Amino acid sequence: MNTPQTLAFGTEAAHLPIKKMNIQRRALLPNDVSIEILYCGICHSDLHAAKNDWGGSTYPLVPGHEIVGKITEIGSEVSKFKVGDLAAIGCIVDSCGTCSHCHEGEEQFCESGWTVVFNSPDKISGGMTYGGFSEQIVADADYVLKMSDKVDLAASAPVLCAGITVYSPLKHWKVGPGKKVGIIGIGGLGHMAIKIAKAMGADVTVFTTSPSKMEDAKNLGADHAILSTDKSAMKDQRGFDMILDTVSAKHDVNVYLRALKVDGSLVLVGLPNEPLEIGAFNVVNGRKSFSGSNIGGIAETQEVIDFCAEHGITADIELINPSEINEAFERLEKGDVKYRFVIDLKK
Ligand code: NAP
Ligand code: ZN
User: Which atom of ligand 1 is nearest to the CA of 251?
Assistant: First the structure.
């Protein structure tokens, strides 16, 4: 069987840099498509995984889960796409398709465990999956999204993870007109959350540790920006229906729990590698919830792609060459990106 080789950018170990490597993609199955990757965003999860922050990384590891490109080949049973169509892949490339969560379009909660686009056992062809820091990818068409040719493709790539990860909880917690919403952290996820929550009609307050991002917050659409290191400004925060926490490192969540109104929710999407501590009185008093959310299903990912296209929402990006990935990882670690690196795979 013909198993195509492709150029990729991955790492051999947690302490080693990203380098060029050749990887095998699986031979096209009847419902598979092959995609020439044009752009791939760099999410903090790519960095966490490359550095094995959460444990469980296997090497060689090729990150990348904000993938947009062009269909170059289709399997014999594919009707969703034709050669030349624009297409996109996010985090999910397979799931059981039969459990109640898959039936409800929430493949991210698949009872048998879904297949992540990288660093995940490929249940079909064996071996591990490799992500979008590469020139080509093969995936089941049911997990591939449609992209409009009317959008800026590079700046839309981050919708595939950053966009869906914030859209799904904002929608689930019924953010809209009359709702007071907080966003913690202005990074890749946070800056998309500001834009999407605004487009949903909410009153948006952003909390940042970075003085240099205070002005940007308003330009991104936030109604209010608070420097979270300013203790007295933080003390005055009250009445939030929902606060979305996108922070990638350990931080104090209690100050945000206190800022919720009765029955309000603090929703975590950030994935620090250390446990967060919650003071009992901060949830008991006011019947508050501390919850989390994980990306979003395939149908909802298509929904957020279409929502962003309709509302003219794209990420603010720094477009880089593959040779600049290591530098981008270093800058991302320091929070020095406004607001998402995207790799141009055609350079
Ligand atoms: P990012 O671009 O690095 O943004 C994270 C932001 O968090 C930073 O820009 C910074 O914002 C703030 N921050 C960083 N360190 C902090 C600290 N010690 N204390 C307080 N604030 C701090 O990362 P991202 O790509 O948006 O991803 C954010 C997190 O979400 C990561 O942990 C990632 O793995 C996770 N994630 C989860 C899902 C999911 O499905 N749940 C999906 C994608 C990503 P300010 O400078 O404004 O303070
Ligand atoms: Zn991500």
Answer: 19
